Amino acid sequence: MNASTRYYRRVTEIMAEVFDKEAAPMEEAALAIADANRTGHSVFAFGCNHAGLITLELFYRTGGMVTVNPVRAPGMMLELSPPTMTSEMERMPGYGRIIFSNMKAKEGDVLIIHSVSGRNAVSIDMAEAAREAGLTVIVVTNMNTTTAVTSRHPSGKKLYEFASVLIDNHGDLGDASVELEGFPQKISSTSTVVGAAILNAVTARACELLLESGITPPVFMSGNIDGGDEHNKKVMAEHADNIFYL
């Protein structure tokens, strides 16, 4: 079996484990997001660097919820050169609180935070500040990794300790998943594909819950099919009070 097949099999194994063992917290997350939309509250998503790819996955795309607001802070989205600076920046105590204080978040809102290790200060500070402000904090992390490393936060705590809802992505230690004979370093991370599946499934369920309660879910249509632009303008206008990325 070659490496590409082994990667596919490992991803599908992890995905099956997640959808089996994390069904309850995923449902809880979907309920929180549906309730936020139902009650006029806002939804935010954040992750540092590659973890932030999940934020972009949820934001402003076909089939996604119009009301998911990305949190894109300087130095947190791999936009700097050299990119090694971003690894140093996500370890900076206090920066997460600065980011949070500049969000238009309020009590009753929802914040989704994705971090594989859950050890770095920015994500931890964000989650702690959000909990103090009365937000529901949905954390997606890798419990195999976070329980094997030390915290880089002054408190000694890790991200999962500040979760209102905790979803484990069931990835391998360190995230890389495929071994090559004669090569010591594993290759091919799984957190992006699995994290995207988790949160797309959660938002799909949130939309279903809204529809079941008689509320039309705020969902983007492709701008590349007829009627898409008109639909998107209409739904963004309807939910303008909970959209902060325009």
Which term fits the overall shape? globular
How many distinct beta strands?
7
Strand order of the largest sheet: 2-1-3-4-5
In angstroms, what is the radius of gyration? 18 Å
Q: How many structural domains can be distinguished in the coordinates?
A: 1
Percentage beta strand? 5-15%
Low-pLDDT regions:
none
Strand count, sense and barrel status of the largest sheet are: 5 strands, parallel
What is the CATH architecture descriptor?
3-Layer(aba) Sandwich
Portion of residues within helices:
40-55%
How is the CATH topology named? Answer: Rossmann fold
Brief descriptors of the model:
single chain; 246 residues; alpha/beta; Rossmann fold; five-stranded parallel beta sheet; two-stranded antiparallel ribbon; 9 helices; globular
Note down, in words, how this protein is organized.
A 5-stranded parallel sheet has the order 2-1-3-4-5, with helices on both faces. Strands 6-7 form a two-stranded antiparallel ribbon. The chain has 9 helices and 7 strands. By secondary structure, the protein is α/β, with parallel strands linked by helices. It has helices spanning 3-21, 23-38, 53-58, 84-89, 95-101, 121-132, 143-146, 191-212, 228-238; strands at residues 43-46, 68-70, 110-114, 136-141, 165-168, 176-180, 183-189. The mean pLDDT is 97.
